[in-house]
Amino acid sequence: MDTVLLFFIFTLLGIVVVLMLVLVDHVRALQSAVGKAGEPGASPESEASVGDSSSPGAAEAGAEALSLVPDAPPPNPADTPDPAFGSLVGKRLWDGMTGKPVDGVEADQVAALRQRFEPVLIQHITELFMEGQGHAAQGGSKPPSNRRKVVTLDGYVPSWIPQQHADSIYQAGFDSFAVNEKSIEALRKSFAEVVDLLCSRTEIKTSGESLARRLVSLPQDRLAALPSPDTAALPAPEVLEQQAA
Q1: At 241, is the secondary structure helix, strand, or coil?
Q2: pLDDT tens readout for residues 174-214
Q3: pTM for the predicted model, two decimal places
Q4: Boundaries of every domain in the chain
Q5: Residue 133, Cα to own-chain centre: how many angstroms?
């Protein structure tokens, strides 16, 4: 009786061991299958999900990358022509403003540009005057150009004035460097006459006298008006290639 009971117990234990081994083999096979499915390129579905750039996460990442790209700097007015004047530049601009017919430009177009032309002409005169004064400070002079690249907030405008007036403005600037109390009024008067003539021919209302009083000053007054040492110097005006009037 004891022998039969022991045999039954050992048989039962053997069956349990076999079942446990089979179960272990199934678990290992399942783990191996799951591990292969999780590897890159294991299935088309996984590849599609990884490479899909239209997912919300990919879109956010792309937007963030674009936000890191710096904005393009604004265009430099000195490198961009003022579009308002179009082909009406240089001597064509002067001719139009003095009433001469210009090919391809109607009279009403010229009249509409007159207000924009006024600061261009005044800046041309001012820069030419300052050029003469600067050359006097350097101890020499050179023939001035009657053409100038005038830079405005909207771009540059090639400007032209008659050569004899350019010479007079430059000479006034040159003489102003060493002007004294006895000669200053005469110099202001002669400079103002040239400015008034240019403004009259182009139908501009700027007063030559007011510009003369602003530009023609005594040396000591110019020294008092100089900026402090920590103030950045203004760039020198650009001059177009000289051409005969």
Answers
A1: coil
A2: 999 999 999 999 999 999 999 999 999 999 999 999 999 99
A3: 0.64
A4: 1-40, 77-224
A5: 31
